[in-house]
Amino acid sequence: MAMWQGAMDNRGFQQGSFNSFRSSSSDEDLMDIPGTAMDFSMRDDVPPLDGEIEEDKSYNGGGIGSSNRMMDFLEEPIPGVGTYDDFNTIDWVREKSRDRDRHREITNKSKESTWALIHSVSDAFSGWLLMLLIGLLSGSLAGLIDISAHWMTDLKEGICTGGLWFNHEHCCWNSEHVTFEDRDKCPEWNSWSQLIISTDEGAFAYIVNYFMYVLWALLFAFLAVSLVKVFAPYACGSGIPEIKTILSGFIIRGYLGKWTLIIKTITLVLAVSSGLSLGKEGPLVHVACCCGNILCHCFNKYRKNEAKRREVSYYFPLKTLWRSFFAALVAAFTLRSINPFGNSRLVLFYVEFHTPWHLFELVPFILLGIFGGLWGALFIRTNIAWCRKRKTTQLGKYPVVEVLVVTAITAILAFPNEYTRMSTSELISELFNDCGLLDSSKLCDYENRFNTSKGGELPDRPAGVGVYSAMWQLALTLILKIIITIFTFGMKIPSGLFIPSMAVGAIAGRLLGVGMEQLAYYHHDWAIFNSWCSQGADCITPGLYAMVGAAACLGGVTRMTVSLVVIMFELTGGLEYIVPLMAAAMTSKWVADALGREGIYDAHIRLNGYPFLEAKEEFAHKTLAMDVMKPRRNDPLLTVLTQDSMTVEDVESIISETTYSGFPVVVSRESQRLVGFVLRRDLIISIENARKKQDGVVSTSVIYFTEHSPPMPPYTPPTLKLRNILDLSPFTVTDLTPMEIVVDIFRKLGLRQCLVTHNGRLLGIITKKDVLKHIAQMANQDPDSILFN
Description:
The protein is mainly α. It folds into three domains: 137-172 and 192-338, no CATH class; 364-448 and 459-597, Orthogonal Bundle (Clc chloride channel); 625-779, CBS-domain (Roll). The chain contains 28 helices and twelve strands. The chain has helices spanning 2-8, 50-55, 92-109, 114-155, 168-173, 192-197, 203-231, 240-247, 258-273, 281-296, 300-303, 318-338, 362-392, 399-414, 418-421, 424-432, 465-488, 498-522, 527-530, 542-558, 562-572, 578-595, 600-608, 625-628, 648-657, 680-693, 739-749, 768-778; strands at 70-71, 158-160, 189-191, 641-642, 646-647, 662-666, 674-679, 702-704, 719-721, 732-734, 753-758, 761-767. The strands form four sheets. The chain has a four-stranded mixed beta sheet with strand order 1-9-8-5. A three-stranded mixed beta sheet has the order 4-6-7. Helix 4 (114-155) packs parallel to helix 9 and helix 4 packs across helix 12. The protein starts with a helix and ends in an 11-residue tail after the last helix. The model is unreliable at 1-71 and 452-457 (pLDDT under 50). The chain crosses the membrane at residues 125-145, 210-235, 256-278, 284-300, 321-339, 359-380, 400-417, 470-490, 497-516, 544-569. Belongs to the chloride channel (TC 2.A.49) family. ClC-5/CLCN5 subfamily. It is a multi-pass membrane protein.
């Protein structure tokens, strides 16, 4: 939060600098931010004397023959006009109108010359070229991150003397001295105790390996948090809450920049390798968005239009859907070429179950959905409470210490248990696995495992010592994952939530699956089993329960349903299990929604005060626009500009005394008839540019927002025409418009403000922040939690 506050505390304005006012105000049109001051003082604000006019023929002030002259310097575009300040919301309607005008101009010019036609074709093709580049870069970075994380994770346990760049699995693949039973043990792979004390046996060797495991984990975590803190503070966290907000039209300068991309890529590998309870899938979304934003600047139509770079939120044309599909196709092809998973497949957890599920199993699947909903609601509440404590106490001032403490606790508790010591992705893969004759995992240590008449498949069998031992270890792993993930997510390092949530669900699902398997084996004559599970038959697949549990817990945390099932298909390739997955996902969402309506990302959006209007939430209250607009009763009158009676000094005074992001323009203060709306930023840049480049513009120059100016008396300074920066069609509603309609308009059009009128007269204004505050107030939440507009 310190970053946000620092950006909002940039006080003051220096003449001649665009950057000086970039963060001087929020986009809250009617909320003052104390401490904002602007200096418009000029030494040459006095019109020249008559003699000086004779000497300087370039002066365009008043006088005979020049009294009608109006300085319209905006015929040429001015850099900065039409852009947005940091931590502000874009005007979707204006941006889309600009893009239509640009496209219309290109189309008209294409008929005039061959070169213009080529330019028109290249402009149309640039979107597909951009998608190709984004797919290539995103897929390459994803493969690089996965390979690097796998290697550095194994580095905590040892190194490959046959090639330092090999991880444990690849090291033993290339070995000629490995047996199938001990395929994870090969002479080329040496643990740290073997390298340091030349033995891997005994208590001292265990202590050495333990110490090196914790040391490497702390080193990786320290490097990750230090790089984030020093070079790219925006590289921390998942990034999905901020990405959702940015796509909805919010400006966060630097969040999708090159430094954020570089640091997030490096620190994501370090954070995952440290063994913390986090994943890389959420941060990979941030990485991909950085790729898209950086590459967008290579193409004019995307670089100069904020809405074109965000065509996936309020505005989602069909062509964007096809281009998104094309980008995903290119990224998948690139990832397949890199083959980071080593299985020649695109999925992270490929599953191949040999037994179909039965209708009765919907009962345990629904139980897993209930568990996922309960876990999701518990996690969201506790994690948000901890993150709020981090933001409001001294804890937030020591991010490095916090990361190191959590890493130390995680590593110390994780090493003794093989299921917490291995990477979370490997754990999920093992839990999803359907045991076969060749599996050596303790989860597949069943009695009479080789006594089968079904070839490579195993029938239901009694659990052996290894299975019971694995169950105890998995139970302890479940407890550790549930607790430690609460404190890990939200720290100042890249941290995703998909993999930890899936791990919690997969462990719970595997435990339930083994329990159901043993129940069917010992009690196959029960009524619930005898109709479909005969003695010795292969009836229950524990790996399927793990997959369903993973989906349930992920759904409970994120509140996804259809997209969640698609994600599970992409991760596992298990297309035939759509009904169990949907049953668990829907149950999980219903249970979690009963305990709290927000998913984890929406909760973090609200915690950070981002101006995000959730499209799925319904507004059912019977309030009117007049109940929400500003000014309210007993408030000062609405600050407005008149179209033809204010001087430069008057406008500068209003800008200096207020921090509103824009001003309505009216015919006169008496009539309050609306003419249009002008942005504060455009006013500042335009006046600054006029003072610098146009002779004779002084404080007493009259500003006109009209098409023509009336005749001026002799010897008056030239007038300043600013009609080109005036929005002549601001969105308006009447004071009796139901807020239900107003909220819908803000959601679907992506408005940042809406003017309120009564019989054509201006009454007030409603900003996006006002709408969000009103929604929060109606939901009995703190309206002051909304920090930005």
